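Quick one: C-alpha coordinates for this chain, please?
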Amino acid sequence: MKISVLHIILFAFLSYSSIAQQVVLTDEVRQSLIDTPKESLWLHTNNTTFFPSEYLYFNIYTLNVSTLKASDLSKVAYVHLVSSGGDTALVKRVALNDGFGQGDLFIPPTLKTGSYQIQAYTAWMLNEPQSIFTQEVFIINPYTNAKVTAVNTEELTSNNKPTKLGEFNSIAIEVAKQYKKRDSIELLIRTINEANLSSFPYSVSVRKIDTIPHPIRNQIWNSKSVQNTSIKDSIWLPEHRGGTIRAQVNSDFFDAKSAVISQRGTDRLVLRLTDENSNTISIQSPKANSDFSVLIQDQGNYSIEDLIKFNSLPKPKKQVYPSSFKSIDPHFKIAIIKRSLYNQIENSYFEFKPDSIILNPNTSFLKSLNSVEFNLNEYTRFATLKETIREIIPEVSVTTIQEKDVIRVKQIRMMPRFENALLLVDGIVFANTQQLFDISATMIDKIRVYTEPFVLGGKTYAGALIMTGNDPEAPYFNKVVNVPQTHLTESPKSYFNQLHKSYSNLPDYRTQLYWNPRLSPSEFQNIQLFSSDISGRFEVRVQGLDSNLKPFSVVKEFEVN
Protein backbone atom coordinates (compact mmCIF):
# COMPACT_ATOMS: atom_id res chain seq x y z
CA MET A 1 0.00 0.00 0.00
CA LYS A 2 1.36 3.39 -0.97
CA ILE A 3 1.65 6.17 1.59
CA SER A 4 -1.16 8.62 0.92
CA VAL A 5 0.19 12.15 1.31
CA LEU A 6 3.94 11.97 0.91
CA HIS A 7 6.53 14.47 -0.23
CA ILE A 8 10.27 14.17 -0.23
CA ILE A 9 11.87 17.55 0.25
CA LEU A 10 15.44 17.57 -1.01
CA PHE A 11 17.35 20.60 0.24
CA ALA A 12 19.44 21.92 -2.64
CA PHE A 13 20.37 25.06 -4.57
CA LEU A 14 20.46 23.98 -8.18
CA SER A 15 17.90 22.75 -10.61
CA TYR A 16 16.89 19.33 -11.81
CA SER A 17 19.23 17.42 -14.08
CA SER A 18 19.11 14.10 -15.85
CA ILE A 19 21.18 11.25 -14.50
CA ALA A 20 24.89 11.73 -15.24
CA GLN A 21 25.11 8.35 -16.97
CA GLN A 22 22.46 7.69 -19.56
CA VAL A 23 21.82 5.72 -22.73
CA VAL A 24 22.38 7.43 -26.07
CA LEU A 25 19.25 6.74 -28.10
CA THR A 26 19.39 8.79 -31.30
CA ASP A 27 21.99 9.48 -33.97
CA GLU A 28 21.50 13.21 -33.39
CA VAL A 29 22.31 12.93 -29.70
CA ARG A 30 25.23 10.62 -30.44
CA GLN A 31 26.74 13.08 -32.93
CA SER A 32 26.25 15.96 -30.52
CA LEU A 33 28.21 14.09 -27.87
CA ILE A 34 30.94 13.17 -30.34
CA ASP A 35 31.30 16.88 -31.15
CA THR A 36 31.49 17.84 -27.47
CA PRO A 37 35.11 18.61 -26.53
CA LYS A 38 36.90 16.18 -24.22
CA GLU A 39 38.50 17.20 -20.93
CA SER A 40 41.89 16.63 -19.37
CA LEU A 41 42.82 17.18 -15.72
CA TRP A 42 45.95 17.94 -13.74
CA LEU A 43 46.31 17.81 -9.95
CA HIS A 44 49.20 18.71 -7.68
CA THR A 45 49.61 18.26 -3.92
CA ASN A 46 51.50 19.89 -1.08
CA ASN A 47 53.41 16.66 -0.39
CA THR A 48 53.57 13.00 -1.44
CA THR A 49 53.99 11.28 1.96
CA PHE A 50 51.43 11.73 4.72
CA PHE A 51 50.78 10.65 8.30
CA PRO A 52 47.47 10.22 10.13
CA SER A 53 45.89 13.55 11.17
CA GLU A 54 47.65 15.41 8.36
CA TYR A 55 45.97 17.12 5.41
CA LEU A 56 46.65 16.31 1.79
CA TYR A 57 46.12 19.66 0.06
CA PHE A 58 45.54 19.74 -3.68
CA ASN A 59 44.86 21.98 -6.67
CA ILE A 60 42.93 20.85 -9.74
CA TYR A 61 43.11 22.21 -13.29
CA THR A 62 40.73 21.05 -16.04
CA LEU A 63 41.37 21.68 -19.71
CA ASN A 64 39.25 21.69 -22.85
CA VAL A 65 41.48 19.61 -25.15
CA SER A 66 39.99 21.19 -28.28
CA THR A 67 40.66 24.83 -27.35
CA LEU A 68 43.56 24.16 -24.91
CA LYS A 69 41.90 26.59 -22.53
CA ALA A 70 40.23 26.18 -19.15
CA SER A 71 37.26 23.85 -19.46
CA ASP A 72 33.77 25.21 -18.78
CA LEU A 73 32.08 21.83 -19.34
CA SER A 74 32.30 20.24 -15.91
CA LYS A 75 31.56 22.09 -12.68
CA VAL A 76 32.58 19.16 -10.46
CA ALA A 77 35.70 17.01 -10.16
CA TYR A 78 36.16 13.84 -8.10
CA VAL A 79 39.26 13.05 -6.05
CA HIS A 80 39.64 9.49 -4.76
CA LEU A 81 42.38 8.08 -2.57
CA VAL A 82 42.67 4.43 -3.57
CA SER A 83 44.67 1.64 -1.93
CA SER A 84 47.09 -0.45 -4.00
CA GLY A 85 44.41 -3.16 -3.98
CA GLY A 86 41.96 -0.83 -5.73
CA ASP A 87 39.70 -0.03 -2.75
CA THR A 88 38.57 3.58 -2.29
CA ALA A 89 39.76 4.90 1.08
CA LEU A 90 38.74 8.58 0.80
CA VAL A 91 36.73 10.61 -1.68
CA LYS A 92 35.90 14.27 -2.27
CA ARG A 93 33.58 16.00 -4.72
CA VAL A 94 35.23 19.33 -5.63
CA ALA A 95 33.57 22.39 -7.18
CA LEU A 96 35.23 23.69 -10.36
CA ASN A 97 35.22 27.39 -11.18
CA ASP A 98 36.58 28.40 -14.59
CA GLY A 99 38.37 25.06 -14.77
CA PHE A 100 40.01 25.39 -11.35
CA GLY A 101 39.28 23.63 -8.06
CA GLN A 102 40.98 23.15 -4.72
CA GLY A 103 40.44 21.11 -1.58
CA ASP A 104 41.97 18.70 0.89
CA LEU A 105 41.75 15.17 2.24
CA PHE A 106 42.15 14.53 5.97
CA ILE A 107 44.19 11.37 6.55
CA PRO A 108 42.40 9.31 9.24
CA PRO A 109 44.22 6.98 11.67
CA THR A 110 42.36 3.99 10.17
CA LEU A 111 44.44 3.90 6.98
CA LYS A 112 47.22 1.34 6.90
CA THR A 113 50.83 2.04 6.02
CA GLY A 114 51.51 1.63 2.32
CA SER A 115 51.17 3.01 -1.17
CA TYR A 116 47.99 4.78 -2.28
CA GLN A 117 46.92 6.38 -5.53
CA ILE A 118 45.15 9.70 -6.02
CA GLN A 119 42.66 9.41 -8.87
CA ALA A 120 41.21 12.71 -10.10
CA TYR A 121 38.67 13.13 -12.91
CA THR A 122 35.37 14.60 -14.02
CA ALA A 123 32.34 12.46 -14.86
CA TRP A 124 32.87 13.34 -18.54
CA MET A 125 36.43 11.94 -18.35
CA LEU A 126 35.15 8.50 -17.30
CA ASN A 127 34.35 7.88 -20.96
CA GLU A 128 38.11 8.08 -21.62
CA PRO A 129 39.63 6.08 -18.72
CA GLN A 130 43.18 6.79 -19.93
CA SER A 131 42.59 10.50 -19.23
CA ILE A 132 42.14 10.00 -15.45
CA PHE A 133 44.91 11.70 -13.50
CA THR A 134 46.88 9.54 -11.06
CA GLN A 135 49.52 10.32 -8.46
CA GLU A 136 51.11 7.85 -6.07
CA VAL A 137 51.39 8.89 -2.42
CA PHE A 138 52.69 7.08 0.66
CA ILE A 139 50.88 6.91 3.97
CA ILE A 140 52.90 5.97 7.03
CA ASN A 141 50.80 5.03 10.03
CA PRO A 142 53.01 4.46 13.08
CA TYR A 143 49.98 3.35 15.09
CA THR A 144 49.59 0.12 13.11
CA ASN A 145 51.83 -2.93 12.93
CA ALA A 146 53.47 -2.07 9.63
CA LYS A 147 56.13 -4.47 8.42
CA VAL A 148 59.62 -3.08 8.99
CA THR A 149 62.58 -4.45 7.07
CA ALA A 150 65.93 -3.12 5.95
CA VAL A 151 65.99 -1.73 2.40
CA ASN A 152 68.22 0.50 0.34
CA THR A 153 67.77 3.91 1.97
CA GLU A 154 69.21 5.86 -0.95
CA GLU A 155 66.76 4.24 -3.35
CA LEU A 156 63.78 5.50 -1.36
CA THR A 157 65.00 8.96 -0.38
CA SER A 158 66.26 9.89 -3.85
CA ASN A 159 62.69 10.70 -4.87
CA ASN A 160 62.51 13.51 -2.32
CA LYS A 161 64.92 15.85 -4.09
CA PRO A 162 63.27 19.24 -4.73
CA THR A 163 62.86 20.70 -8.20
CA LYS A 164 65.72 23.03 -9.04
CA LEU A 165 64.93 26.73 -9.27
CA GLY A 166 66.58 27.04 -12.67
CA GLU A 167 64.14 24.62 -14.29
CA PHE A 168 61.52 27.36 -14.60
CA ASN A 169 62.91 30.88 -14.76
CA SER A 170 59.71 32.91 -15.07
CA ILE A 171 59.11 33.01 -11.31
CA ALA A 172 61.67 33.90 -8.63
CA ILE A 173 61.34 33.17 -4.91
CA GLU A 174 63.10 35.50 -2.48
CA VAL A 175 63.42 34.36 1.12
CA ALA A 176 66.20 34.66 3.73
CA LYS A 177 68.50 31.67 4.20
CA GLN A 178 68.02 31.38 7.96
CA TYR A 179 65.35 32.13 10.57
CA LYS A 180 64.80 31.53 14.26
CA LYS A 181 61.89 29.61 15.76
CA ARG A 182 58.64 31.63 15.75
CA ASP A 183 60.31 34.15 13.50
CA SER A 184 58.46 36.36 11.04
CA ILE A 185 59.15 35.23 7.47
CA GLU A 186 58.83 37.68 4.61
CA LEU A 187 58.31 35.74 1.40
CA LEU A 188 58.55 37.52 -1.95
CA ILE A 189 57.49 35.78 -5.15
CA ARG A 190 58.35 37.78 -8.26
CA THR A 191 57.08 37.31 -11.80
CA ILE A 192 60.01 37.59 -14.18
CA ASN A 193 58.17 36.76 -17.40
CA GLU A 194 54.37 36.84 -17.07
CA ALA A 195 53.96 35.82 -20.72
CA ASN A 196 55.18 32.33 -19.74
CA LEU A 197 52.42 31.89 -17.15
CA SER A 198 48.89 30.56 -17.63
CA SER A 199 45.74 32.23 -16.31
CA PHE A 200 45.16 29.44 -13.77
CA PRO A 201 45.77 30.18 -10.06
CA TYR A 202 49.01 29.02 -8.45
CA SER A 203 49.66 27.36 -5.12
CA VAL A 204 52.31 28.31 -2.57
CA SER A 205 53.36 25.71 -0.01
CA VAL A 206 55.88 26.19 2.80
CA ARG A 207 56.67 22.99 4.69
CA LYS A 208 59.43 21.09 6.47
CA ILE A 209 61.74 18.82 4.47
CA ASP A 210 62.43 15.40 5.95
CA THR A 211 64.26 12.25 4.91
CA ILE A 212 61.21 10.00 5.04
CA PRO A 213 60.56 8.19 1.69
CA HIS A 214 58.48 10.10 -0.86
CA PRO A 215 57.09 8.91 -4.22
CA ILE A 216 58.09 10.89 -7.30
CA ARG A 217 55.77 13.78 -8.13
CA ASN A 218 53.84 13.33 -11.35
CA GLN A 219 55.37 15.90 -13.72
CA ILE A 220 54.00 14.53 -17.01
CA TRP A 221 50.79 15.89 -18.48
CA ASN A 222 50.09 15.55 -22.16
CA SER A 223 47.12 17.87 -22.45
CA LYS A 224 46.49 16.80 -26.07
CA SER A 225 46.47 13.06 -25.42
CA VAL A 226 42.68 12.70 -25.10
CA GLN A 227 41.14 12.35 -28.54
CA ASN A 228 37.52 12.26 -29.69
CA THR A 229 36.45 8.62 -29.91
CA SER A 230 33.27 6.76 -30.67
CA ILE A 231 30.41 7.21 -28.23
CA LYS A 232 29.23 4.01 -26.59
CA ASP A 233 25.59 3.24 -25.83
CA SER A 234 26.03 4.12 -22.17
CA ILE A 235 28.11 7.17 -21.32
CA TRP A 236 28.81 9.65 -18.56
CA LEU A 237 27.60 13.18 -19.30
CA PRO A 238 29.38 16.39 -18.24
CA GLU A 239 28.05 17.77 -14.95
CA HIS A 240 27.82 21.31 -16.25
CA ARG A 241 25.62 22.79 -13.50
CA GLY A 242 26.98 20.94 -10.48
CA GLY A 243 27.41 17.39 -9.29
CA THR A 244 24.45 15.11 -9.87
CA ILE A 245 23.11 13.27 -6.82
CA ARG A 246 21.19 10.16 -7.75
CA ALA A 247 18.77 8.37 -5.44
CA GLN A 248 16.65 5.27 -5.87
CA VAL A 249 13.18 5.34 -4.33
CA ASN A 250 10.90 2.49 -3.32
CA SER A 251 7.87 2.58 -5.59
CA ASP A 252 5.96 0.38 -3.12
CA PHE A 253 5.65 3.44 -0.89
CA PHE A 254 5.38 6.44 -3.22
CA ASP A 255 5.98 7.81 -6.69
CA ALA A 256 9.24 9.72 -7.17
CA LYS A 257 7.44 12.15 -9.51
CA SER A 258 5.79 13.75 -6.48
CA ALA A 259 9.15 14.90 -5.09
CA VAL A 260 10.13 18.57 -4.86
CA ILE A 261 13.39 20.30 -3.98
CA SER A 262 13.91 23.06 -1.45
CA GLN A 263 16.35 24.10 1.22
CA ARG A 264 15.18 24.32 4.79
CA GLY A 265 15.19 27.79 6.28
CA THR A 266 15.48 29.70 3.00
CA ASP A 267 13.54 30.71 -0.10
CA ARG A 268 16.53 30.49 -2.43
CA LEU A 269 15.27 27.70 -4.66
CA VAL A 270 12.47 25.23 -4.89
CA LEU A 271 11.72 22.80 -7.67
CA ARG A 272 9.35 19.98 -8.45
CA LEU A 273 11.10 16.91 -9.76
CA THR A 274 9.99 14.82 -12.69
CA ASP A 275 11.85 11.88 -14.16
CA GLU A 276 11.20 9.42 -16.96
CA ASN A 277 12.05 6.63 -14.56
CA SER A 278 9.51 6.94 -11.76
CA ASN A 279 11.83 5.11 -9.39
CA THR A 280 14.77 7.49 -9.77
CA ILE A 281 15.42 10.93 -8.35
CA SER A 282 18.23 12.88 -9.99
CA ILE A 283 19.16 16.36 -8.80
CA GLN A 284 22.04 18.79 -8.95
CA SER A 285 24.21 18.78 -5.85
CA PRO A 286 24.08 21.88 -3.68
CA LYS A 287 26.69 24.58 -3.97
CA ALA A 288 29.36 24.91 -1.34
CA ASN A 289 28.12 25.39 2.22
CA SER A 290 24.62 24.08 1.62
CA ASP A 291 23.14 21.61 4.09
CA PHE A 292 21.61 18.88 1.99
CA SER A 293 19.12 16.51 3.57
CA VAL A 294 15.98 14.54 2.80
CA LEU A 295 12.79 15.28 4.67
CA ILE A 296 9.63 13.17 4.37
CA GLN A 297 6.27 14.52 5.47
CA ASP A 298 3.92 11.79 6.62
CA GLN A 299 2.40 10.32 9.73
CA GLY A 300 3.25 6.75 8.78
CA ASN A 301 5.48 4.49 10.84
CA TYR A 302 8.32 3.43 8.53
CA SER A 303 12.07 3.57 8.15
CA ILE A 304 13.63 6.27 5.98
CA GLU A 305 15.97 3.62 4.57
CA ASP A 306 12.93 1.81 3.23
CA LEU A 307 12.02 4.82 1.12
CA ILE A 308 15.18 6.16 -0.47
CA LYS A 309 18.76 5.01 -1.10
CA PHE A 310 21.52 7.18 -2.53
CA ASN A 311 23.61 5.82 -5.37
CA SER A 312 27.40 5.89 -5.29
CA LEU A 313 29.45 8.61 -6.93
CA PRO A 314 30.79 8.08 -10.44
CA LYS A 315 34.16 6.36 -10.26
CA PRO A 316 36.50 4.28 -12.44
CA LYS A 317 36.41 0.51 -12.43
CA LYS A 318 38.29 -1.06 -9.54
CA GLN A 319 41.75 -2.29 -10.45
CA VAL A 320 45.00 -3.19 -8.71
CA TYR A 321 47.95 -0.91 -9.53
CA PRO A 322 51.72 -1.44 -9.04
CA SER A 323 53.17 0.02 -5.84
CA SER A 324 56.64 1.50 -5.37
CA PHE A 325 56.31 1.30 -1.58
CA LYS A 326 58.55 -1.48 -0.28
CA SER A 327 58.91 -1.19 3.48
CA ILE A 328 59.98 1.13 6.28
CA ASP A 329 63.69 1.18 7.03
CA PRO A 330 64.53 1.38 10.78
CA HIS A 331 66.79 4.27 9.73
CA PHE A 332 63.65 6.46 9.55
CA LYS A 333 62.40 5.57 13.05
CA ILE A 334 63.42 8.84 14.76
CA ALA A 335 62.01 11.00 11.93
CA ILE A 336 58.71 9.10 12.01
CA ILE A 337 58.37 9.43 15.80
CA LYS A 338 59.06 13.18 15.67
CA ARG A 339 56.57 13.84 12.90
CA SER A 340 53.90 11.79 14.65
CA LEU A 341 54.47 13.72 17.87
CA TYR A 342 54.22 17.05 16.05
CA ASN A 343 50.89 15.98 14.53
CA GLN A 344 49.43 14.92 17.88
CA ILE A 345 50.31 18.24 19.50
CA GLU A 346 48.95 20.28 16.61
CA ASN A 347 45.66 18.39 16.52
CA SER A 348 45.22 18.95 20.25
CA TYR A 349 45.02 22.70 19.54
CA PHE A 350 43.12 22.58 16.26
CA GLU A 351 40.16 24.56 17.62
CA PHE A 352 42.49 27.56 17.95
CA LYS A 353 43.90 27.12 14.43
CA PRO A 354 40.93 26.18 12.25
CA ASP A 355 40.50 26.42 8.51
CA SER A 356 37.55 28.58 7.54
CA ILE A 357 34.92 28.00 4.87
CA ILE A 358 34.50 30.69 2.23
CA LEU A 359 30.81 31.54 2.41
CA ASN A 360 28.69 32.13 -0.67
CA PRO A 361 26.33 35.11 -0.69
CA ASN A 362 22.81 34.27 0.44
CA THR A 363 20.65 35.26 -2.49
CA SER A 364 16.98 34.58 -3.18
CA PHE A 365 15.51 33.81 -6.58
CA LEU A 366 12.36 35.75 -5.55
CA LYS A 367 14.02 39.07 -4.68
CA SER A 368 13.31 40.55 -8.09
CA LEU A 369 9.54 40.00 -7.74
CA ASN A 370 7.00 42.38 -6.19
CA SER A 371 5.91 41.30 -2.74
CA VAL A 372 4.22 42.40 0.46
CA GLU A 373 4.89 41.06 3.96
CA PHE A 374 2.47 40.47 6.83
CA ASN A 375 3.67 40.14 10.43
CA LEU A 376 0.92 38.03 11.99
CA ASN A 377 1.87 39.13 15.50
CA GLU A 378 0.49 42.56 14.63
CA TYR A 379 -2.97 41.17 13.86
CA THR A 380 -5.72 39.36 15.70
CA ARG A 381 -4.87 35.69 15.75
CA PHE A 382 -7.33 33.26 14.20
CA ALA A 383 -7.78 29.62 15.13
CA THR A 384 -6.58 28.15 11.85
CA LEU A 385 -4.05 29.08 9.16
CA LYS A 386 -6.86 28.95 6.59
CA GLU A 387 -8.83 31.62 8.47
CA THR A 388 -5.66 33.67 8.98
CA ILE A 389 -4.94 33.84 5.26
CA ARG A 390 -8.57 34.61 4.38
CA GLU A 391 -9.04 37.37 6.96
CA ILE A 392 -5.63 39.09 7.06
CA ILE A 393 -4.17 38.88 3.54
CA PRO A 394 -6.38 40.66 0.97
CA GLU A 395 -4.04 39.73 -1.92
CA VAL A 396 -4.82 36.03 -1.51
CA SER A 397 -7.99 33.99 -1.94
CA VAL A 398 -8.83 30.53 -0.67
CA THR A 399 -11.35 28.77 -2.86
CA THR A 400 -12.71 25.23 -3.00
CA ILE A 401 -12.44 23.33 -6.29
CA GLN A 402 -13.66 19.75 -6.49
CA GLU A 403 -13.78 19.57 -2.70
CA LYS A 404 -10.13 20.68 -2.37
CA ASP A 405 -8.86 24.02 -1.06
CA VAL A 406 -6.84 26.08 -3.53
CA ILE A 407 -4.75 29.16 -2.65
CA ARG A 408 -4.37 31.80 -5.33
CA VAL A 409 -3.00 35.34 -5.61
CA LYS A 410 -5.98 37.43 -6.68
CA GLN A 411 -4.35 39.94 -9.04
CA ILE A 412 -2.66 37.26 -11.14
CA ARG A 413 -4.82 36.21 -14.07
CA MET A 414 -5.03 32.43 -14.02
CA MET A 415 -4.12 30.55 -17.18
CA PRO A 416 -4.52 26.81 -17.76
CA ARG A 417 -0.76 26.28 -17.71
CA PHE A 418 -0.34 28.08 -14.39
CA GLU A 419 0.21 26.16 -11.20
CA ASN A 420 -1.37 27.39 -8.04
CA ALA A 421 0.65 29.66 -5.77
CA LEU A 422 3.92 28.24 -4.51
CA LEU A 423 3.62 27.48 -0.78
CA LEU A 424 6.70 27.36 1.48
CA VAL A 425 7.12 27.18 5.25
CA ASP A 426 10.71 27.68 6.39
CA GLY A 427 11.84 26.64 2.93
CA ILE A 428 9.75 23.47 2.90
CA VAL A 429 7.39 23.13 -0.06
CA PHE A 430 3.78 22.17 0.56
CA ALA A 431 2.26 20.90 -2.67
CA ASN A 432 -0.85 19.81 -0.75
CA THR A 433 -2.90 22.74 0.58
CA GLN A 434 -4.70 20.68 3.21
CA GLN A 435 -1.39 19.55 4.64
CA LEU A 436 -0.43 23.23 4.95
CA PHE A 437 -3.70 24.07 6.70
CA ASP A 438 -3.01 21.31 9.25
CA ILE A 439 -0.20 23.51 10.65
CA SER A 440 -1.26 25.51 13.70
CA ALA A 441 -1.63 29.22 12.94
CA THR A 442 0.32 30.06 16.10
CA MET A 443 3.43 28.42 14.58
CA ILE A 444 3.60 30.98 11.74
CA ASP A 445 4.97 34.48 12.43
CA LYS A 446 5.27 36.04 8.97
CA ILE A 447 3.79 35.56 5.51
CA ARG A 448 5.31 37.25 2.46
CA VAL A 449 3.11 37.26 -0.65
CA TYR A 450 4.73 37.46 -4.11
CA THR A 451 2.26 38.95 -6.55
CA GLU A 452 3.84 38.01 -9.89
CA PRO A 453 3.85 34.72 -11.81
CA PHE A 454 7.21 33.01 -12.33
CA VAL A 455 8.61 29.87 -13.90
CA LEU A 456 10.61 27.46 -11.78
CA GLY A 457 11.68 23.93 -12.63
CA GLY A 458 9.48 23.82 -15.70
CA LYS A 459 6.39 24.92 -13.74
CA THR A 460 4.64 28.31 -13.88
CA TYR A 461 3.46 29.46 -10.47
CA ALA A 462 0.75 32.06 -9.86
CA GLY A 463 2.71 33.89 -7.18
CA ALA A 464 4.00 32.55 -3.90
CA LEU A 465 3.35 32.54 -0.15
CA ILE A 466 6.62 32.33 1.79
CA MET A 467 5.89 31.65 5.48
CA THR A 468 8.28 31.92 8.42
CA GLY A 469 7.72 29.63 11.37
CA ASN A 470 8.79 30.05 14.98
CA ASP A 471 9.50 26.43 15.92
CA PRO A 472 12.65 24.71 14.56
CA GLU A 473 11.28 21.41 15.92
CA ALA A 474 8.00 21.76 14.05
CA PRO A 475 6.23 18.47 13.24
CA TYR A 476 6.58 19.04 9.49
CA PHE A 477 10.29 18.30 10.02
CA ASN A 478 9.46 14.91 11.44
CA LYS A 479 11.40 12.65 9.04
CA VAL A 480 14.93 13.78 8.17
CA VAL A 481 17.99 11.94 6.88
CA ASN A 482 21.29 13.48 5.78
CA VAL A 483 22.80 12.76 2.39
CA PRO A 484 26.15 10.94 2.79
CA GLN A 485 28.97 13.48 3.03
CA THR A 486 30.69 12.10 -0.06
CA HIS A 487 27.73 13.26 -2.14
CA LEU A 488 28.32 16.90 -1.23
CA THR A 489 30.53 19.33 -3.08
CA GLU A 490 33.70 20.29 -1.22
CA SER A 491 33.56 23.89 -0.02
CA PRO A 492 36.53 26.17 -0.76
CA LYS A 493 38.57 27.05 2.32
CA SER A 494 40.68 29.94 3.53
CA TYR A 495 43.55 28.04 5.13
CA PHE A 496 44.91 28.99 8.54
CA ASN A 497 48.00 31.21 8.65
CA GLN A 498 49.64 31.35 12.07
CA LEU A 499 50.37 34.81 13.48
CA HIS A 500 52.13 34.56 16.82
CA LYS A 501 50.89 37.94 17.96
CA SER A 502 47.50 36.30 18.51
CA TYR A 503 48.57 32.82 19.64
CA SER A 504 51.88 33.36 21.40
CA ASN A 505 51.06 31.11 24.38
CA LEU A 506 50.12 28.01 22.39
CA PRO A 507 52.54 25.26 21.34
CA ASP A 508 53.36 25.48 17.65
CA TYR A 509 54.58 22.30 15.98
CA ARG A 510 53.44 22.93 12.43
CA THR A 511 55.39 21.20 9.68
CA GLN A 512 53.17 22.88 7.05
CA LEU A 513 53.85 26.58 7.69
CA TYR A 514 51.74 27.97 4.84
CA TRP A 515 49.36 26.85 2.08
CA ASN A 516 47.51 29.05 -0.37
CA PRO A 517 46.00 27.38 -3.46
CA ARG A 518 44.47 30.44 -5.12
CA LEU A 519 47.22 32.95 -5.87
CA SER A 520 47.40 34.81 -9.18
CA PRO A 521 50.65 36.44 -10.37
CA SER A 522 49.24 39.85 -9.42
CA GLU A 523 48.88 38.61 -5.82
CA PHE A 524 52.40 37.17 -5.40
CA GLN A 525 54.01 40.23 -3.80
CA ASN A 526 54.96 39.91 -0.12
CA ILE A 527 53.56 37.01 1.88
CA GLN A 528 53.96 37.03 5.67
CA LEU A 529 54.09 33.85 7.71
CA PHE A 530 55.77 32.58 10.88
CA SER A 531 58.12 29.71 11.56
CA SER A 532 57.06 27.24 14.25
CA ASP A 533 58.78 25.59 17.21
CA ILE A 534 60.38 23.07 14.83
CA SER A 535 63.91 23.52 13.53
CA GLY A 536 65.37 22.09 10.34
CA ARG A 537 65.22 22.59 6.56
CA PHE A 538 62.06 24.01 4.99
CA GLU A 539 61.04 24.55 1.38
CA VAL A 540 58.97 27.17 -0.41
CA ARG A 541 57.28 25.52 -3.39
CA VAL A 542 55.29 27.39 -6.06
CA GLN A 543 53.30 25.09 -8.37
CA GLY A 544 51.13 25.77 -11.38
CA LEU A 545 50.89 25.60 -15.17
CA ASP A 546 52.94 27.62 -17.62
CA SER A 547 51.61 29.24 -20.80
CA ASN A 548 52.07 25.94 -22.65
CA LEU A 549 49.98 24.22 -19.97
CA LYS A 550 52.94 22.26 -18.68
CA PRO A 551 53.17 21.79 -14.90
CA PHE A 552 56.06 23.46 -13.17
CA SER A 553 57.38 23.49 -9.62
CA VAL A 554 59.76 26.17 -8.35
CA VAL A 555 61.44 25.48 -5.00
CA LYS A 556 63.70 27.40 -2.64
CA GLU A 557 64.94 26.27 0.77
CA PHE A 558 65.70 27.98 4.08
CA GLU A 559 66.78 26.91 7.56
CA VAL A 560 65.08 27.36 10.95
CA ASN A 561 67.44 27.12 13.95
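The helical segments are 27-35, 153-157, 333-348, 385-392, 433-437.
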